[in-house]
Specification:
Layout (H helix, E strand, L loop, with lengths): L1 H8 L17 H8 L14 E13 L4 E12 L5 E6 L4 E8 L2 E3 L1 E3 L11 E9 L4 E10 L6 E4 L11 E4 L20 E10 L3 E4 L2 E2 L12 E12 L6 E4 L2 E6 L2 E5 L4 H7 L3 H12 L8 E4 L8 E2 L4 E4 L12 H8 L7 E3 L6 H19 L1 H22 L18 H4 L3 H17 L14 H14 L2 E3 L1 H11 L1 H6 L2 H6 L15 H19 L20 H14 L8 H11 L7 H13 L6 H10 L3 H13 L2 H14 L5 H11 L2
Parallel strand pairs: 1-11, 17-18, 18-20, 21-22
Antiparallel strand pairs: 1-2, 2-8, 3-7, 4-5, 4-8, 6-7, 9-10, 10-15, 11-14, 12-15, 13-14, 16-17, 19-20
The protein binds ligand BES and zinc ion.
Length: 667
């Protein structure tokens, strides 16, 4: 370990008398015995002391692939016990020196780093610190090229091809590879930053920026940007991007940033942003973050979107040209309340972030486009949940709403649709029973006023803090005592498999029906040989006329559901689908991905090359993982092709995506 040697071998390493550093690997045991909350994904000694603010002064070095400088952490000792150390999470960082209140302090890096949680950094506080007292720790450090939360792009990996690019992705536990921190969602802090980067590149962070890039002086070819985040955020919401960036205004509090080559496309695609924001405020309460800007990233960005405060990061695979993927922006906006303002206390209750966010996302769509759209996307979500549960197995522990992460389970390994869609279904159910009607009632998704008020109060009462499932349950019980008694909390929260209640019965399938019926026709024609020439009776190119992109997507989702893994469509039917509907020409990345999955499932080897092209074009895990899986499942040749394609393209993937795909492929 790079830093471990450094810390221990540091000749200035001195132990303040009476404060022998604890064996860091036992740090967690000590924390657990002392206080709650416990965070199974952090080795820090939060909340013995709490970091409440961080001041960064950092320089970005593209040649060395390193960000370095100082992080000055302000910490307050908790109310119960005195502190003699501050234990922080790190991973792949070089720690150069530490000082406490201006006095050089001894530090030690864990000699046996945890494979998932990283290398704990124990800083000895000179003299024990009393409960309630505040101290400041300055750490001089730098990241290494191995830091999992950063991706360094060479110019040829960008749209412009001339400048390098750096971006971060810290959720769930990668902030520790950027700075020494209490990398626990409950350890919220404000921050200020100075970031020095080579001109003409622009640095952006998840905060309100200081002066505009043009007004900054260039010295020695470098410019220094400043940022301030006044709202306390968990470390995973810290974010940094540096690249050749330009902005266009898209609303009174919003602009879209991207490389000049893609900024106009972003401006068009995300034009509904202000409307989404206003709809979200009506559902969830005032927007506290000041700005809501978007950063359109290069194609290797591993997620669809990431709700970094003040500056959502989005993948360019949203650029369908028709705003059909804009609901991802509604989703990230929704996180301004669920996740960013009110945060899951640990990653075991991730559904409190994502399930609530999907709920608000669909409420936004409801407000703007009507209940039919809410129901349509809820039906799709339930189908995706079913696909996940079928694929993992109905008794798989990761299909429980609350997974167990104790023992250092990597939250990235547990990631799936479950917290999103089972969490959403749970809220729909709770809304439904709160109205006093436990029966299937098509009106339920229309929203019950009392539940709407409850949701707003949830954000108002917990703002700037965290929530647990137990706390949420208690407030629901207080608000809806009779309804709460009907809820099987234990099964919903802890049992694997599909939800105990079929919430699908609440939805009106008006918009889904046409897609589902068309899919059924093709399915029956294939299995029962109905129709002529490998296509259903009367099938024609006009079948999809009047379908929105979302309905075409739903048609493919329905086909995938009918024909899941083991019952592929026959090749002639695949050819007929393509002939009539030209699905391969879709600019919508969701449609393109599902169509390739169907073709690969049918053993269509002509789909190999276009799949390889898609796998090289973008590194969004939502597409990489099912496409690699489908290739792999499509026989020996497919598996060999998957491995070959991965070897050829892995260098362009984000470290997180590379790791997840490697695990999926067993390499
Ligand atoms: N916060 C997530 C992305 C994330 C989750 C990153 C877990 C790292 C760990 C983000 O809000 C998200 O859910 N994005 C979705 C879009 C959405 C519409 C469901 C995505 O990336 O596809
Ligand atoms: Zn989300």
């Amino acid at each position: 370990m790079l830093g471990a040697v450094q810390g221990v071998a540091n000749p200035k390493f001195v132990r303040a008398s009476g404060s022998t550093p604890k064996r860091v690997s036992r740090g967690r045991t000590a924390v657990r015995a002392m206080a709650t909350p416990n965070d199974p994904s952090s080795q820090s000694n939060y909340p013995v002391s709490k970091v409440t603010h961080c001041d960064f002064d950092l320089t970005v070095d593209f040649e060395k692939k390193s960000v370095g400088g100082t992080a000055v952490l302000t910490a307050t000792v908790g109310p119960d016990v005195a502190a003699d150390t501050l234990v922080l999470d790190t991973r792949d960082l070089v720690i150069e020196s530490c000082s406490v209140d201006g006095v050089e302090a001894a530090f030690e890096l864990q000699s046996d780093p945890h494979p998932v949680m990283g290398t704990a950094l124990t800083i000895t506080l000179p003299g024990s610190r009393a409960p309630g007292s505040t101290f400041s720790v300055a750490v001089a450090y730098r990241t290494t090229p191995e830091s999992s939360g950063l991706q360094w792009l060479r110019p040829e990996q960008t749209a412009g091809g001339k400048h390098p690019y750096l971006f971060s992705q810290f959720q769930a536990i990668h902030a520790r590879s950027f700075f020494p921190c209490q990398d626990a969602p409950a350890a919220k802090m404000t921050y200020k930053a100075r970031v020095t980067a080579p001109a003409p590149l622009v640095a952006l962070m998840s905060a309100v920026p200081g002066e505009s890039p043009e007004s900054l002086p260039v010295a020695d070819g470098m410019r220094t940007f400043t940022f301030e985040q006044k709202v306390p955020i968990p470390p995973y919401l810290l974010a940094l991007a540096v690249g050749n960036l330009e902005a266009r205004d898209i609303g009174p509090r919003s602009r879209v940033w991207s490389e000049p080559e893609t900024v106009a496309a972003g401006e068009y695609e995300f034009a509904e942003t202000e409307e989404f924001l206003q709809a979200a405020e009506n559902v969830a309460g005032p927007y506290v973050w000041g700005r809501y800007d978007l950063l359109l990233l290069p194609p290797s960005f591993p997620y669809g979107g990431m709700e970094n405060p003040c500056l959502t990061f989005v993948t360019p695979t949203l650029l369908a040209g028709d705003r059909s993927q804009a609901h991802v922006v509604a989703h990230e906006i929704a996180h301004s309340w669920s996740g960013n303002l009110v945060t899951n206390e640990t990653w075991e209750s991730f559904w409190l972030n994502e399930g609530f966010t999907v709920f608000i996302e669909r409420k936004i769509m409801h407000a703007m486009y009507g209940k039919a759209v809410f129901d349509f996307s809820a039906i799709g979500g339930l189908m995706e949940l079913k696909e996940t549960v079928d694929r993992l197995g109905a008794d798989h522990p990761h299909t429980a709403l609350t997974p167990v992460l104790e023992g250092g389970v990597d939250p990235d390994d547990v990631f799936s649709k479950v917290p999103y869609e089972k969490g959403f279904a749970f809220l729909v159910y709770l809304e439904h029973v709160s109205s006093g009607r436990a029966d299937a009632d098509a009106d339920a998704a229309n929203g019950h006023p009392a539940f709407g008020e409850f949701l707003k109060a949830h954000f108002e009462n917990n703002k700037f803090g965290c929530v647990t499932a137990a706390g949420f349950r208690a407030s629901y019980e207080a608000a809806f005592p009779d309804a709460a008694k009907k809820v099987d909390w234990e099964t919903w929260l802890h049992k694997p498999g599909m939800p105990p209640v079929d919430v699908g019965a609440y939805y009106d399938d008006a918009l889904a029906r046409a897609s589902a019926e068309l899919a059924k026709k093709w399915h029956l024609c294939d299995v029962l040989g109905m129709g002529a020439q490998d296509r259903p009776e009367g099938a024609s190119a006009s079948d999809l006329e009047g379908f929105t992109a979302a309905q075409i997507d739903h048609f493919l989702l329905s086909l995938l559901e009918y024909r899941g893994g083991s019952h592929p469509l026959s090749l002639p039917v695949i050819r007929a689908l393509e002939e009539l509907y030209s699905l391969s020409n879709s600019k919508n990345s969701e449609i393109a991905c599902k169509w390739l999955q169907l073709r690969l499932g049918a053993g269509d080897t002509e789909a190999f090359e276009p799949t390889a092209k898609a796998l090289a074009a973008a590194g969004r895990m939502k597409f990489l993982r099912p496409l690699y899986r489908s290739l792999r499942r499509s026989g020996k040749d497919g598996e060999a092709f998957a491995l070959k394609t991965f070897e050829e393209t892995r260098a362009m993937y984000h470290p997180i995506a590379e790791k997840m795909v490697a695990a999926d492929l067993g390499v």
